[in-house]
Amino acid sequence: MKGNLEKITRGTEHLGQSCVFCQQDIQAEDEVIACPRCRSPHHVHCWKDKGGCGKTGCPQVAQAVRGERPQGDGPPPPISRKVIALGVVAIAAIILAFIFWPKPPDPAMGRAKVVFMGEAYFELSEALTELAKEYNATSETTYIDLQLLPPGAMDTKLIVLIAANEAPDVMAIDDDRFAYFLENDVLLPLGEDESGEPIYGMQHPAQLTKLVVWSDTDHPQQALEVLHYFVDHIPPLDLNLLRELESQPWPFGIE
C-alpha cells in the first residue's frame, strides 16, 4: 500500500465509531482518516501523532494526507510601479539633500585657521574670547579658532588630538608637558634668546603655563603671529602670587 494517499473525510461518515488510537467517539464535526489497509477510523491528529494506523498488528504507516488545499493568505500583492517610482524619487531626494544642503558659512571665510587651545577660568575665558573676536574682526589673513577647556581637561584632550593627528596650532601647556614636548622635538622655535639659543615657549601672561606652537602646524607664520598677539594683549597677572597660592595646600591653594 506504499504511496497511497490517506483521504480526509468528515465524521458524519463514521458516526457511532471510535478512533482506534484514542478510543474517543467520532463526532460529526471531526476530521477523520480511515486506514487504507484495515479501514479503521482515526482522528486526523491521532493519525499524524501515531504516524500511521493505530490498530494493533496493522503495518500501515502514514504516507500523505489529502484534503482540501488550504486557501491561506496567498502571495503578497505585487508592488505597483507608482509606489516603486515614488520610493526611488524619495531616496534620490534624500541623497541630493545631503549633497547640496547649504552648509553653515565658514567663519574663517577663506583665511588661514589657527586653533588656539588652553584652559581658562571664567575671567580669563572672557578676556581671551574678546581678544579673539577683535583679532578676527580685523585680520584679513588669519582666523583664530579659540578652544578653551575647563581646568584639568587639557592634558587628556591633547593626547586624543595628537593621536588623531589633529594637534592644535597654538596651545597653553604646563611645565611638565612642555618638557615632554621639548624632549620629543615637537615644538616650533619661536625665536632666539640673547645667546642665539632657540626659544620654544613663552610665559602665559595670566597663567603658570607656557604658550607654544606645534611643529607640524599647517600655518607656522600665522601661528607665531597668534601666539605673540595673545602674549602682548592678555591682561597680565602677578605670576609670583599665583605660584605662591599654588604651593599652598587646599583650600588656600589653586586647584
CATH class of the largest domain: Alpha Beta
Could you state the CATH homologous superfamily of the largest domain? Periplasmic binding protein-like II
Helix content: 25-40%
Return Rg in Å. 43 Å
Measured distance between first and last alpha carbons: 95 Å
Mean of pLDDT:
84
CATH architecture of the largest domain: 3-Layer(aba) Sandwich
Write the CATH fold name of the largest domain: D-Maltodextrin-Binding Protein, domain 2
Portion in strands: 15-25%
Question: What does it look like?
Answer:
The protein has 255 residues and is α/β, with parallel strands linked by helices. The chain has 2 domains: 62 residues, no CATH class; 136 residues, Periplasmic binding protein-like II (D-Maltodextrin-Binding Protein, domain 2, 3-Layer(aba) Sandwich). It is built from 7 helices and 11 strands. The strands form 3 sheets. It has a 5-stranded mixed beta sheet with strand order 6-5-7-11-10. A 4-stranded mixed beta sheet has the order 3-2-1-4. Strands 8-9 form a two-stranded antiparallel sheet. It is elongated and about 120 Å long. It starts with a strand and ends in an 8-residue tail after the last helix.
Keywords:
255 residues, alpha/beta, D-Maltodextrin-Binding Protein, domain 2, 2 domains, five-stranded mixed sheet, four-stranded mixed sheet, disordered C terminus
Question: TL;DR?
Answer:
With 255 residues, the chain is of the alpha/beta class. It is built from seven helices and eleven strands. The chain has a five-stranded mixed β-sheet. Strands 3-2-1-4 form a four-stranded mixed β-sheet. Strands 8-9 form a two-stranded antiparallel sheet.
